[in-house]
Each structure stands twice: as C-alpha cells, then as structure tokens.
Amino acid sequence: QVQLVESGGGLVQAGGSLRLSCAASGRDFRNSAMGWFRQAPGKEREFVSAINWSGGSTRYGDSVKGRVIISRDHAKNTLYLQMNSLKPEDTAVYYCAASKELDISGIVRPGGVDYWGQGTQVTVSS
After folding, report:
1. Strands 58-60 and 78-83
2. Which DSSP state fits 110?
3. Angle at CA 34, nearest 5°, toward 30 and 40?
4. Is 121's pLDDT higher than 90?
5. pLDDT (average), residues 16-35
6. pLDDT at residue 110, as a whole number
7. Quick one: which H or E segment has residue 23?
8. Beta carbons of 98 and 29 less than 8 angstroms apart
9. Are 117 and 97 spatial neighbours (Cβ–Cβ below 8 Å)?
10. Which of 1, 94, 82 is closest to 46 using CA atoms?
11. Once rounded to an integer, what is the mean pLDDT over residues 104-109?
C-alpha cells in the first residue's frame, strides 16, 4: 500500500522556520517526481514546490520562491521542504505529492499527481 506521510507542521511566528518531511513507502519513489502543494481555508489547492526524480531539478511557486528549499533523500525515501521567513499567508495544510513520471512536468500538470499524503497543518501567527 502506497503511503505518503507528512510531518513537521505546527504553529510558528512570522519570520520563523519549519521543515516539513514526507516519508514515502509502498513503492520505489526513486524514479518519481515529488512535490508539495498547500491549501488554505476557502482557497484552491496551490502548487508550492517540486523536485525531479534525481533531485537535480527543482521548481517553486511564485508565492514561496526564495523562502523555501525542496530536497529529497533517496536512501530514506523521504522528501523535505525547508521553509524560512514564514508569513501569515503561508498558513495552510501542506500536502506531499508524487507522480509516476520522472520529471517535474509530470507532477505540475493538471491531474499529474498520482499519490497524495494526508497533509500537515502549518499555522503562522503574526
């Protein structure tokens, strides 16, 4: 059974940092693009960041560019999102996602996510 389990969310003050983790299991994700999306109350799910199968290519949403870093550890089958300089508008549920395709294009296109995690809440207070 494929599982993506997020952790690391919580409450942080504006300007603070958090590192989200996503532990993947149930299949070999070394050949999968992976990423993070988020959804705030009353808003649509939004792309945050993605990384290709090797970790050599990354992409970031405009709202987080310059403040977050995505990375992956194949040995641990884990995806990370380091978030810095957090703002109240970053408050959302953050979801880990994986595609069956190698490249970022496979996960950012509509319908490109094959697996979703359950999400972890990030709340940034002002």
Report:
1. unpaired
2. T
3. 155
4. yes
5. 96
6. 87
7. strand 18-25
8. yes
9. yes
10. 94
11. 92
